[in-house]
Structure formats: C-alpha cells, structure tokens
C-alpha cells in the first residue's frame, strides 16, 4: 500500500468505548511495517529543525533513517546517545510543541510521528533484550542522587556509565517518581515499560535505596560528611499539591490529584488484589487543564464515574498534551471550559461534598505567560453536581530538602537555584535538576537536567583530583 | 526488608514490635512517626514511634488492628519483616526544642487514651532522662486494656483510670483531670493529650477552661507522609495544615476536631465499620470512656 506522504501512518488504538472501562494501554504503537512506512515520510532534512525542538537533541533524521532501512538496533543506539528513557518519552513527550512541532514535513501536511517512532524503537530494543552497557571499571568515587524520577534516574545512569558508584535515595517505596505514582497505567504501562527502564538503570550498577526521605531519614550534609559521597544530585521533583483555598475544600470527597493518582497508580487501588482504598465517586469534577487533570479525569472515568473537567480558560489554552485531550474526549470526559470554582457545596449532615459552584469566565488581555487572562463574569454562578472533586491546580517543590541543607539557595517559588548547563547549586558539590529546579515541567526536560547534572558532577570531581 | 526482632501482645488486641530500621533510629525524636507496609499489596500505615534504640538501630511500634492491613500486620512474628518502613516523619515534639531549664519550671501533664498510651511513652521517658518527672493519666476501657504500666511507673507519676472502675480510678480521663485539679490540689502549666480524636476534643475543651496550653497528636488518614498528597489536611486556627509535615502535634485549642473526625470517615466502608464495631473502637480506641467507639 502506498504511503500518503501528507498524513501520519495511523496508529492502532484501543476502542474508546472499551478502554473507558479498563486500565490497559490506550495506544498500541506501530508494528515494524507501520514504523518503516512512517519512517519513509521523513525527508532527512539537512537543516533538521526537529532536532532543535527536542530538548535533548536526539539525532532524529539519523534514527529514522535506521528504521527506514529496517536496522532497528542502529536506530536504538542513535537514540541512546541522547536519551535514557526513550520508551517513556516516545509515549509522554508533548511532541506537538517539541520535535514534531518543528518538523519540516509538518509545514504542508502532518509532521512525521517522531514520538511513535521513538517508542517503537525503544519497545523493539526492550523486547529483543538490548540493554545499555555498564562501565568497564569503577573509578572509586561515590555520588548520591536524591529522587528516582526521570531527572535522578538519568543522572545516575550517566554517572554509572562513567564508572561512578551511584546510590539513589528515594522517599517512596518504589522508584520512578511521577512515572510510577502520577502517570496512569493506560498511558505508561508500569511493569512492561517503567519498571524495565528502572531495571536498565540498576543493571548499570546503580543502587536504589527506597524509603529514605532526605532531610528526615538523613541529611545531605551527613551524606557528604559521614557517608563518603563526594557529590550529590537533587532530583526531588515538585510534588506539593496546591489547593484553591475556597470554602468547602476540606469536605469529604475533595482530594488532590496527587492523592487520587497515587492511590490508583502507585498503590493500584483499581486492582482487587491490592488493599488500597479509593473513593470511586459517581459524579466527579476535576479542576484544572493540564496533563495531571487529564490523567485524574480519565482515571475517575475508568473507575466508573461521570467525569467533568472544569477549566478557567478556553479549550485552546488547555496546557495538556493534545493527544490526551483528544483521548479524554473520545472516552467521554465532559469539558466545562471558561468556568472556575468559587465554592464547594457540602452536605451538612454527612460532611460530603455535593456540588461545585462555578462562575463563568471570559478571556481578557494576555498576561505575563502570553495567555489571555480569564476574568470572572459577575452574576454568572452556577452549580455542577458532584460527589467527588479532584484538585489539579499544579504543584511546587517540597521544602523538606532546602530547609534541612545548609547553604542551599532557593527562589521565591521554593525552586532550587541551579546552573542550567551544569546543575551546580549554591552549595559546593551539590547539583540539582528537573522539577525541583524548574517547577512542574516535563519528563524530557527533567531528563535533560539529569544529564547536565551528571556532566557537571563529573567535571567537578575530575577537577578536584586534577590538582 | 526491615526485620522484626521482637513481637508481643501488650493486651489482647494491642501488638508491640521492635523493628530493625537503622536510618530511622539514628534520627528520630519523640513525637515523630513512621510508615510501614507489609508487602507489595499492603497499605502504607502510619504509626507513632513509641521507643527507639539508636545503638541497636531499632524502633518500637505499638498498634491495634483496625482494618485489613493492620490485622495482617498483627499476624507478623519475630523473624518476619516489613517490606517498607520509612521515617522518621513529622516534626519532633516541641518539648524537645524547649530549653530544659524552662521545662523544669513547669508542671507537665500527659493524658493518654487507649493505644495513644504508647506514643506518650517516649516523651515522658525523654523528660525523665532530663530530670523532669511529669504526671501522666492513662485512660482505658477496663483493666485488661491498660498497657505499659510498669514502664510508665519507672518514669513518671502515674494515674490510671478505667471506664468500668475495674482498675484504680473509675471514669473518663476528663473526670480524673478534674479531680486532680479540683480535689487533689494539682496545678498544671502544660498538657499533652494523645488518644482517640474524641478524647482529645473533650480534654481540650476542659483544659481551655482551666487555661492550660494543650498539645495534641493528630492521626488523620495519610498516604505518603511527606507533604505530597494532602490527604492529611487538618484545620488548625482557621488554617489548613498537613499533619504529616506541619504536625502531627498541634495546639489542641486551635484544632477543628469535628471536621477532623468527619474526615476520618473518608474511606470508611460498611465493611470497615463492621470490623470497627466488632473490635470495639477505631484507632487508639482502647476505650477512653468518652465515646462509644465508632458511634
Ligand atoms: C499526573 C502527571 C502527568 C504528567 N504527564 C506528563 C506528560 O504526559 N508528559 C511529560 O513530559 N510530563 C508529564 N508530567 C510531568 C513530568 O512527569 C515531570 O515533569 C517529571 O516527572 C519531573 O521529573 P523529576 O525527576 O524532576 O521529578 P519526579 O518525577 O517528581 O521525581 C522526584 C522523585 O523524588 C522523590 N523525592 C522527593 N523528595 C524526596 C526526598 N526528600 N528524599 C528522597 N526522595 C525524594 C519523589 O518521591 C519522586 O520519586 C506529568 C506529571 C504528572 C504529575
Ligand atoms: C501520625 C499517625 C500516627 C499513628 N499512630 C498509631 C499508633 O501508634 N498505633 C495505632 O494503633 N495506630 C496509629 N495510627 C492509626 C493507624 O495508622 C490506623 O489505625 C491504620 O492506618 C488503619 O489501617 P488499616 O488498613 O488496618 O485500616 P483500614 O482498612 O484502612 O481501615 C479500616 C477502617 O478504619 C478506618 N480508619 C482508617 N484509618 C483510620 C485512623 N487513622 N483512625 C481511625 N480509623 C481509621 C477506615 O475508615 C476503615 O473503616 C496513627 C495514625 C497516624 C496518622
Ligand atoms: S525525546 Fe521527546 S522531544 Fe525528543 S524526539 Fe523524542 S519525543 Fe521528541
Ligand atoms: S524535520 Fe521532519 S522531515 Fe525533517 S528530518 Fe526532522 S522529522 Fe524528518
Ligand atoms: S500524608 Fe500525604 S500530604 Fe500528608
């Protein structure tokens, strides 16, 4: 069959009616033939704009050329030069605003499906047992990494490849960060994909010690002064949920997206064989419009609820990945845009939330973020019935580490101040990157920061011994 | 894995365990808690640190089966292990940071109800080690629910009261408090109350009238214990606080107990209710006498 050069080779997906009731992965991905067909749409541009769109500058035309030739191993080794988590990024990167957003093929017609091709390559490599190579010998230097999310895993993996003895300290009982506790199974399979990526990092010799809360179980100063770590990388993410501070918010049935998603993803409340309790709800309102809100809404839907998104700007401003919004709609999530909650109505007798009072909004002048500012329309209040309200308004970094580490500077948003190219912080030997530095961002940016941190730490330790 | 070095029963349904957790033992202070998980499918269960041994690297926990996960925990024996055991979490008790000289000037009273008796112990012991002898009221449903009596006798002036009068004094802890102050000439400058939410509520009501500053330890539903989920929200002085990082100890005169008690019901299923009723009383409900358990 001839490939339509203007259109993406369609990817097979689970039927929306069916998948709205299960937690299996929505998108099946390309098979080898489909991947080769899609790869043939790439024009191998000399001045490949797609590379500039990728935060870790994967050599996209080259890896796609590998697929086109059917040399998937070559494609994988090209991706691996720049990315440690391709099976994850291929699935969750906001490609439309990164690599694919710049694709020259996309000027006339649709961009090349770079994300899906990356995913195909990584899945193929995993299924064919291709693993990264551990370092030939250790260099005798110990580095500690805090947090086993994308930033920490990437930093640890890079350092281990250079021969460092790396230990990751993770507060939760499981590694992965947001990949494990936040992003749901139906978008990013846990045992099939995430756990395998973590295994790869372990197979490079990285030790992962779970159940260690830095700042509580042990401090950074102790790691360096007493446990012999010469440098520390902080990749602790931005995990603190925000609430709206409106009346009714402490009622029963009102919870943060973090709580809802952690119960369901990390602690598998949706499965009968786990003891985790979760409130399923009959009518769920999710407040917010980002990836987290989409994930919470689609999870609530799968647990059997009628689910509404309440978002204060218009649909065009939804910050979530386009694909997630599209999938959410297909599955039956109802979007109430241009409205904002002002109060949660509580049943006096039971203490449960029973409704969400909203006010309609209109868009005014653009604000500092360049998006048009939503303004409330006086007198336009109305009520949405709800027995569960999930707040998904964004997150900020946890002060546990910054408040217990002497000499570590943070900014007014509680983010750790770190150099973009090296990850260096105000404290000697301490590096940082990912959401802990930028505030909530993306997997690929966190990974990029982990790479930069590994480079910074390597240079720091080498310089120390060069004298 | 975190090995259980010792396990016994303090009362028919109250289990004590000594668990190997060197990182926790090295850093913990009275007032803090841990989160334990038995295996892959278990829940994350927050439990107060009841004692610790820095040298041996061990933590003592005392708990009562409430639902499925704590029931499974109670089945574990010496030699078994927890898959996960994380801590110390929460802030240490404020007493630890108060200068000793200042504490010595104060008459300090602890009021403990049910399983809440166990978490009071490290604080009382800590004061004793620093040359301060506090008064302690332990409230229990009846004689067989009085725990750690011997341990307490060694470190404080102990008053025991049982709902049914089967041991020492008779009546609720609030009755005992009232008697001590009004009939026995006691005077207190500081009170720490740990027990069922309802007990803490009524103790706080009374100490407010007497003008005694009172600290309580909140035990709301928790998930991560690090400030990440907000499940543990409590209203204190009109502000929302996360008990796991801002607490678990708060000024009892500022806590909205009615709301806190309501929030505990979040995951209360019919099944859970039945279990609670049968084993009489929710968490910490060894029976302080102030409430009918779950009713
Ligand atoms: C629900 C959800 C959906 C998302 N969807 C997307 C998406 O589709 N695409 C995308 O690109 N991005 C998405 N993101 C954002 C992306 O996941 C994050 O930007 C990324 O995970 C940040 O990586 P990180 O390594 O900096 O931090 P995290 O992934 O947050 O990892 C930090 C780790 O550090 C641990 N930690 C924290 N404090 C301590 C401490 N004191 N001691 C020890 N360990 C500690 C945490 O437990 C955690 O495991 C989503 C985020 C969420 C929450
Ligand atoms: C900081 C902190 C310290 C604690 N210290 C101790 C301690 O030292 N000893 C001890 O025995 N317990 C303690 N608890 C309470 C203990 O964590 C709960 O009893 C336990 O989580 C119940 O778990 P479960 O899975 O067995 O019950 P679940 O199956 O979760 O619940 C069974 C039933 O109990 C209800 N329930 C759930 N959690 C609580 C709770 N916290 N209180 C009352 N009812 C509840 C549920 O709604 C359900 O109906 C503490 C709690 C906190 C937050
Ligand atoms: S890592 Fe993300 S941005 Fe880079 S090529 Fe892959 S999908 Fe695109
Ligand atoms: S810009 Fe598009 S067409 Fe050009 S090399 Fe990149 S993926 Fe291929
Ligand atoms: S238990 Fe999650 S924030 Fe306190």
Percent of sequence in beta strands of chain A: 15-25%
Helix content bin of chain A: 25-40%
Number of strands of chain B: 17
**Biggest sheet architecture of chain A:** 5 strands, parallel
Query: Could you name the ranges of chain B where pLDDT drops below 50 across 5 or more consecutive residues?
Result: 270-295
If interface size is counted as residues with C-beta under 8 Å from the partner's C-beta, which chains form the largest one?
A: A-B, 37 and 37 residues
Work out the number of β strands of chain A.
16
CATH hierarchy class name of the largest domain in chain B:
Alpha Beta
Helix content of chain B: 25-40%
Proper CATH architecture of the largest domain in chain B: 3-Layer(aba) Sandwich
Please give the radius of gyration of chain B in angstroms. Answer: 18 Å
Spatial order of the strands forming the largest sheet of chain B: 12-11-10-9-13-14-17
Oligomerization category of the chains in this entry: heterodimer
Structural class of chain A: alpha/beta
Q: What does the average pLDDT of chain B come to?
A: 87
The largest pleated sheet of chain B is described as:
7 strands, mixed
Low-confidence stretches of chain A: none
The backbone outline of chain A, from C-alpha atoms, is globular
Radius of gyration of chain A over all CA atoms, rounded: 23 Å
Cofactors, ions and other ligands in the entry: flavin-adenine dinucleotide, iron/sulfur cluster, FE2/S2 (inorganic) cluster
Overall mean confidence score, pLDDT of chain A: 93
Task: Describe the protein's topology.
The complex is a heterodimer of chains A (467) and B (295).
Chain A: H1 16-19, H2 32-39, H3 49-53, H4 60-68, H5 72-82, H6 86-92, H7 99-102, H8 114-127, E1 142-146, H9 150-161, E2 165-169, H10 178-181, H11 190-203, E3 207-209, H12 220-225, E4 231-234, E5 240-241, E6 254-256, H13 257-266, E7 283-287, H14 291-302, E8 306-311, H15 322-331, E9 334-337, E10 339-346, E11 353-366, E12 372-376, E13 382-385, E14 388-391, E15 395-396, H16 399-402, E16 430-432, H17 435-438, H18 443-466
Parallel strand pairs in A: 1-2, 1-4, 2-3, 4-16, 6-14, 7-8, 7-14, 8-9
Antiparallel strand pairs in A: 5-15, 10-11, 11-12, 11-13
Helix pairs in contact in A: 2-4, 4-5, 4-8, 5-8, 6-8, 9-18, 13-14, 14-15
Chain B: E1 2-11, E2 14-20, H1 22-27, E3 33-37, E4 45-48, E5 51-53, E6 58-63, H2 68-75, E7 81-82, E8 84-89, H3 94-97, H4 100-104, E9 108-113, H5 117-129, E10 134-140, H6 149-153, E11 156-162, E12 169-170, H7 173-182, E13 190-194, H8 197-210, E14 214-217, E15 233-236, E16 239-242, H9 243-246, E17 249-251, H10 257-263, H11 270-278
Parallel strand pairs in B: 9-10, 9-13, 10-11, 11-12, 13-14
Antiparallel strand pairs in B: 1-2, 1-7, 2-6, 3-4, 3-8, 5-6, 14-17, 15-16
Helix pairs in contact in B: 7-8, 8-10
The complex binds flavin-adenine dinucleotide (FAD) (2 copies), iron/sulfur cluster (SF4) (2 copies) and FE2/S2 (inorganic) cluster (FES).
């Amino acid at each position: 069959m001839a490939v339509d050069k203007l259109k993406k080779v369609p990817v097979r997906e689970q039927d929306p009616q069916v998948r709205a009731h299960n937690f299996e992965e929505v998108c099946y991905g390309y098979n080898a033939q489909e991947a080769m067909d899609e790869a043939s749409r790439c024009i191998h541009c000399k001045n490949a704009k797609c590379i500039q769109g990728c935060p870790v500058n994967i050599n996209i035309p080259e890896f796609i050329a590998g697929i086109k030739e059917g040399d998937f191993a070559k494609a994988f080794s090209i991706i691996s030069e720049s990315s440690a988590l391709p099976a994850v990024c291929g699935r969750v990167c906001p490609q439309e605003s990164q690599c694919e957003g710049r694709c020259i093929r996309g000027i006339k017609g649709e961009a090349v499906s770079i994300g899906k091709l990356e995913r195909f390559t990584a899945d193929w490599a995993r299924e064919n047992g291709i693993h990264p190579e551990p370092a030939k010998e250790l260099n005798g230097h110990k580095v500690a990494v805090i947090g086993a999310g994308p930033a920490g895993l990437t930093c640890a993996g890079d350092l281990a490849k250079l021969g460092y003895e790396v230990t990751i300290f993770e507060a939760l009982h499981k590694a992965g960060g947001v990949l494990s506790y936040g992003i749901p199974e139906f978008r990013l399979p846990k045992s099939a994909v995430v756990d395998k990526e973590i295994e790869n990092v372990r197979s490079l010799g990285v030790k992962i010690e779970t159940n260690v809360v830095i700042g509580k179980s042990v401090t950074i100063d102790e790691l360096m002064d007493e446990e012999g770590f010469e440098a520390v990388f902080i990749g602790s993410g931005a995990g603190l949920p925000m609430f709206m501070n409106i009346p009714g918010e402490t009622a029963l049935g009102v919870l943060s997206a973090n709580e809802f998603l952690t119960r369901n993803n990390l602690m598998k409340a949706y499965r009968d064989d786990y003891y985790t309790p979760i409130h399923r709800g009959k009518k769920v309102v999710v407040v917010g419009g980002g990836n987290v809100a989409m994930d919470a809404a689609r999870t609530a839907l799968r647990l059997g609820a009628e689910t509404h998104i309440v978002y204060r700007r218009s649909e065009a401003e939804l910050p979530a990945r386009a694909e997630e919004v599209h999938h959410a709609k297909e599955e039956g999530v109802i979007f109430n845009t241009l409205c904002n909650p002002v109060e949660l109505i509580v049943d006096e007798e039971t203490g449960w939330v029973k409704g969400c009072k909203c006010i309609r909004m209109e868009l005014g002048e653009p604000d500092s973020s360049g998006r048009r500012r939503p303004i409330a329309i006086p007198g336009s209040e109305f009520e949405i019935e709800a027995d569960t309200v999930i707040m998904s308004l964004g997150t900020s970094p946890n002060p546990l580490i910054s408040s217990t580490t002497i000499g570590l500077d943070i900014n007014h948003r509680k983010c750790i101040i770190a150099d973009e190219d090296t990850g260096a912080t105000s404290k000697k030997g301490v590096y940082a990157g990912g959401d802990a530095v930028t505030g909530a961002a993306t997997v690929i940016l966190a990974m990029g920061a982990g790479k930069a941190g590994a480079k910074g730490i390597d240079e720091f330790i080498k310089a120390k011994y060069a004298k | 894995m975190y090995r259980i070095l010792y396990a016994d029963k303090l009362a028919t349904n109250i289990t004590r365990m000594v668990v190997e957790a060197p990182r926790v033992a090295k850093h913990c202070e009275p007032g803090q808690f841990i989160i334990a998980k038995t295996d892959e499918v278990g829940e994350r269960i927050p439990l107060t640190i009841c004692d610790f041994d820095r040298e041996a690297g061990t933590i003592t926990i005392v708990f009562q089966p409430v639902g499925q996960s704590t029931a499974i925990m109670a089945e574990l024996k010496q030699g078994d292990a927890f898959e996960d055991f994380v801590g110390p979490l929460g802030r240490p008790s404020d007493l630890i940071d108060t200068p000793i000289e200042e504490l010595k000037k104060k008459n300090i009273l602890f009021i403990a109800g049910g399983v809440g008796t166990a978490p009071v112990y490290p604080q009382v012991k800590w004061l004793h080690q620093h040359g301060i002898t506090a008064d302690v009221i332990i409230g229990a449903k009846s004689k067989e629910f009085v725990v750690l009596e011997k341990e307490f006798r060694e470190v404080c002036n102990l008053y025991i009261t049982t709902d049914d009068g089967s041991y020492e004094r008779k009546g609720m802890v609030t009755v005992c408090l009232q008697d001590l102050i009004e009939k026995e000439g006691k005077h207190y400058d500081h009170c720490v109350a740990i027990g069922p939410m309802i007990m803490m509520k009524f103790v706080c009501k009374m100490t407010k009238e007497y003008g005694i500053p009172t600290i309580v330890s909140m035990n709301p539903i928790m998930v991560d214990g690090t400030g990440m989920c907000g499940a543990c929200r409590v209203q204190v002085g009109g502000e929302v606080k996360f008990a796991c990082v801002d607490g678990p100890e708060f000024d009892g005169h500022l806590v909205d107990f009615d709301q806190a008690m309501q929030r505990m019901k979040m995951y209360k299923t019919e099944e859970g209710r039945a279990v609670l009723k049968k084993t009489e009383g929710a968490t910490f409900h060894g029976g302080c006498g102030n409430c009918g358990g779950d009713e």
